[in-house]
Structures are given as structure tokens and as C-alpha cells.
Amino acid sequence: MDACFILEFIRSESDDSGSNKLFNSYIPYDLVLLENQIPFFVLNDIFGLTISLKTDQSLGEFILPLLKCLNVIQGVIPKSSTSRSLLVNSADHILDYLHKFYMPESYIESKFPRSTIHSAVELDRAGVKFMPNKSATWRLSMKVEKHRCSCIFWFLGKPTLRMPVLRINHFTELIFRNLIAYEHLSGANAYITSYARAMEMLIDTHEDIAKLVRSEVIINHLGSNEEAASMINRLCKEVVWTSFFYGEEWEKLDKHFVNLRRTYFNSPWNIIALFAGIFLSVLAMLQTSSKIN
Predict the structure, then answer these.
(1) Does the pTM of the predicted model rise above 0.85?
(2) CB 71 within 8 Å of CB 219
């Protein structure tokens, strides 16, 4: 009976015009609860006896509107129907199907950070930029890009942290908590838990949220940045930290942070020399510009 309801609900709330009325309902968020999962083979058998007789869609294609509604990472749903079919054929249920969209193509080695953890605001003050990783193969990846610059302006050569674009709304916490619970109960690789932990490290206060929103790596639909920061910091509460897949990138960020402090701020003379160099360079550029004009 539950399987029949799920299939009919999806059919009635999504149509051929591309409209997805699922976004206007609370029911999709009940379907992602761990305790409400129905084996995919049950859904597939009923789908084969009913809806598939009137459509060429596979079950994976049919429930795609539901997955788009539940997705919290921008651009994570694969465009290839072949890729989606492979995922649905190996999925146990709807929550597992959603979880598989966030998995990398190959295993990534876990490495816990041995360095100091810095918030987004602290990293920003150290010259780190944040940008979306729209072209990444693994949508949950976070990569540090280093730009070498011989210019005296050290901030022109600052590194960039490429990261997923996270959508935050009133259901984001519910979706994350169920994905995290599923990882720990099923024994699946804890990529979602690791991502949530990484975001918790980057975000301490509303100022961190504001910085990441301005950098277009967070889309915040909640009432305030304070509420979003509080939500992020609740995601891994009482969750055992078994793996972390961003350790190398975190060490790169800390190395930049430490080198910057050692190079420019270890003594008052370094600070004076830095600003003197910047002043002289700006003066030289202005003089060159005036001669050209």
C-alpha cells in the first residue's frame, strides 16, 4: 500500500510539462526518513505492473523529480540517463538512491587533519578565496587551487578553495541527518558525514555564513545567517567521526595560513616592510600611468 501511494504521489505531482509540484509539498521529506524506506524491488515490481505500462520511463527516471526536490547540493544529479539507471539498479531504496548521487566515481582515501582548523572568515583574512566547484567530477569535492604570482602583492597570489554549492532551507537539516544516519547504519563510506564535518569546521558564526554566501558557495533560504550557522553546527552532533576525505586540502589551507603569518606578521619590521613595498609599488604604477597618459 505504501509503495502504491509513493508511485501515485510522484505521478500526480510531476507532469510532462516539466513542472515539479513536489517542491510545494511536505511529503517528499517524509519519504527520505530512514524509518520510512521501502525496498526498491517492491517499488520496481509495482511500477512494472502499473505506471510503466503507460510510459517508456524506467523507475529511476520516474522518481527523478523526487530526487531533485530532495537534493541539497547544486548540480549533483547526473544528466546521463545511463548513469542514473546504473545507480537505481544498485540502490536499496529511495534514501540509498539519493545517497549514491553524492558518491565519487572511485574510492577516496580518508585522512584526518593534523593541523589547526580555521573558519571561513579566518581563511578569508589570510587571503583564501572561495568559489564553486561546478566542473568537479565529484560534486562534494573540495580542492585548494594555488596561483603563483611573483608580484609583490601577495594577495594577488592567494589560494582558492573550490567547494560544492550548498542549498540551505528548512529541510536541509532533515535530509542531512537521514543521509548521515544511513551511512552509519549501513556501513557505507561516510562521504556525507565528512562533508558535513568539513562545513562545521568552516562555519563558526553567522559571519562565516555571510562570507560563503557572498562567495556563492552557499544559497541560504533560511530567515537569517545565524539560523544557518546554528543548523550547520548541529549536523554532526553526537555523530562518531570515522573518516574524513578533505584532510590533504585542510593541511594546504593551514600551511598557507602559517606561512603567511610567519612571512609577513612575525615581527613589526616585516609588517612595515610589507606596507612600504605595497606603497612604493602603487606609487610606481601611478607614475607609469601618468607618463602614458
Answers:
(1) no
(2) no
